[in-house]
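Troubleshooting: if your tokenizer reports a length mismatch, compare your output against this known-good record of 436 residues.
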Amino acid sequence: MTQAPPRRTVRATDTGPIVLSGLRAAWEPLAKQALVTALIVGAAAASTLLPMWLTVTDATAMWTGAGLAVVLLGLTALMARSTRLARVEILVPLLDFVAIGLLRFGTGESRSVFLAIIILPVIWIAAGHGRWRVAVPLIGTVVTLLLPLLLAPGRVFPASEGVRLVIVVVTFGAAAAVVNELSRRSLLQLTAAQRSRRVAEAEVSQAAIVQRSLQPVDGNGLPSAIRVAGTCVPARSVGGDFYDWYPTPDGGMGFTLGDVMGKGVGAGMIAAAVRAVIRSSLGEPDPALAFRSTSAGLSTGSVDMVSAQFTTCFHGRISLDGSLRWVDAGHGLTLVRRAAGGSEFLRSAHLPLGVGSGWTSVETDLQPGDSVISVSDGVLDLFGGDLASLDRWQAFVDAREDVDRLVSDVTALAERGDRADDVTVVAVTWGGASKA
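Known-good structure output:
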């Protein structure tokens, strides 16, 4: 008896999306500041190049604002690479208010057409978490509008400018409040979605553990004349394929390979149910009775449990004298490799579980050293997935006399890249009648 090769553990979680999300969060401030900088520098350049349409009242202040925006752009680039600097991200939009105020002062103050740029740092700050992010943009807006009083002391502040200040602060304040509330609700929804995802991942992970625990690990307990190996490499954490082997009361062994249509937890639940009912029939000498019991056990009345997800399955019993009694429910992917050379597929016209009924078993004699190899259709995908893949698979089997090597090589092929379907194989070699 040989031990089955180790099965690949598929984790329910994937760190890839988390890493990508972190990278996006790190570079978002740079993208925001790039837009603000482009608008401020573009406004200064347009005012310089189009004096007939745009006013320049203080070129020094105007270009100082543009230069400050460029400096802030460089600072955000450093923040994207430094966690320590990223902690003071809010300073960038706050200083943008100053840059916009300088631009406004240099392009006509109240007559400037560039005040609308101020909405960008307002949204930037308000979109964060916390109600204080509504008040901060208002302070920045006031700074932008009152900056001329600092740059030109003694200047009379007209009443119209006061009205403008009130209207702008109220308008942008309302915008900040709306953005902040939407951000808060989005954060709550995201938190709830993440919590649900963690619960679902934990459940899938537990289901994968349970499914793996139901698969036999080695041939302990089987007759010494029988060698067995098997593996299942699921396409997801939980697969729809299953395999099983166990000793039978007559001193022989039984083995099963099934493939439930579909993948994921639903298919895994049906696979576990089918496996359990078939194994419970180990005392019946006719393996076809196991399929009849399974079909009856999964029937729910008006709608069968497996009617939407039928199961193809192969089930065989090997007695001590080398007699193989088998039944195939629409599977058709089991072959006998002869020790003398060559192999042949075990063909059956029966339909899958959940579709057909009235299965009957067939008897095939094994010679010492003959092997029975059954696989799921995911194995054929490793050999092209076309009609010729059956021939390539058969040649692959014929070239490997040892079942351990066969299963190990199939596992290596399956783990070489992504799989669209579960890959499962079980191989049994009968070595001859055991001695009493």
